[in-house]
Amino acid sequence: MRYYLLPIIIISLMLLVLDNEKSVINKEMVSSTKEISYPFFDNAKIDNYITNYLDDYKDNEKDNILIDYDYYDKDNMYYLTFYKYILENGKVNSNSDSFFINMNDNIVNKIDNTVYEFDFVTGRNVDSDKKLVALTFDDGPNYNTNKILDILNKYHVPATFFVLGSRIKGNEYILEKMKISGMEIGNHTYNHLLLTKYSKDKIKKEIDDTSDLIFEVTGKRPRLLRPSYGSFNKKIKSVSEMPIIIWDVDTLDWKYHNSKKITSRVVNKVRDGDIVLMHDIYSATANALNSIIPILTDMGYSFVTVSDLFYYKGITLEEGKVYGYAN
Ligand code: ZN
What we know:
Blueprint: H1 5-18, E1 27-30, H2 44-60, E2 67-74, E3 77-88, E4 91-102, E5 107-118, E6 131-138, H3 143-154, E7 160-163, H4 172-180, E8 184-187, H5 200-218, H6 234-239, E9 244-245, E10 249-250, H7 253-256, H8 259-269, E11 274-279, H9 283-298, E12 301-303, H10 306-312, E13 322-323
Parallel strand pairs: 6-7, 6-11, 6-12, 7-8, 9-13, 10-11
Antiparallel strand pairs: 1-2, 2-3, 3-4, 4-5
Bound molecules: zinc ion (ZN).
């Protein structure tokens, strides 16, 4: 077997497991010995930029095993990512560079240069012997969600967003940004009603309408439900076709709007396997993140999405069951 075929097989298997993501409209695997037929943009400035990048990339990476690319396009804005994969010690080492290309303004920005290792199931590299914590954000998307995403991306921290169906329209690009940033998107129902007071049919509609919208925008159905107010009863559990995720650290950010208070509530209460409740719609929450992330990192925590938290803790999530932490 040619040496470069093994990662191709592994990555193909991994993509089968992981990737039913509709927005990845092109994925091509080529070895470094082949020319990369990357998407041309029919724009001299942008095509030259990418050609030069690839020439440098190939010159500097003689030991390439595999290169491929993804791109994602929306309204003449492209995210284009090139990857190099190397298999080592049962893990995939990947090196990627991403570009944000705005065809409207004729601008191309190199936005990332990361080297990472990842697990086949989660697509991430997490040391599961370390303490784990899942940050969760409810009630978005709104304009402030962007700020939260930028901070999470700055620190390469994945998180889970429980979105409201009623807030998706007009904010589709925020869900797309979540997806591109590797965030998990969960269902927080449509209208934020106190569901315990409603009929099974109404509860089901609140949940399904939201899942349908998330699927429409991201190509992926949410796998987690957080009922509004975190309230649940037998009726909700029987209707939910997803595990019900609550929390065990409540920042009360909606009450305090004070980044110091939010930070100290997390730092003082957090334990391994915890799920932290925040709201992405407040600017104090965004400010608090700038201290929460470095402090928890210093305390030895790794950040994971909710699904990954339970995966790493060896817990299988079951539909209709309620989970507030994983330990
Ligand atoms: Zn809520």
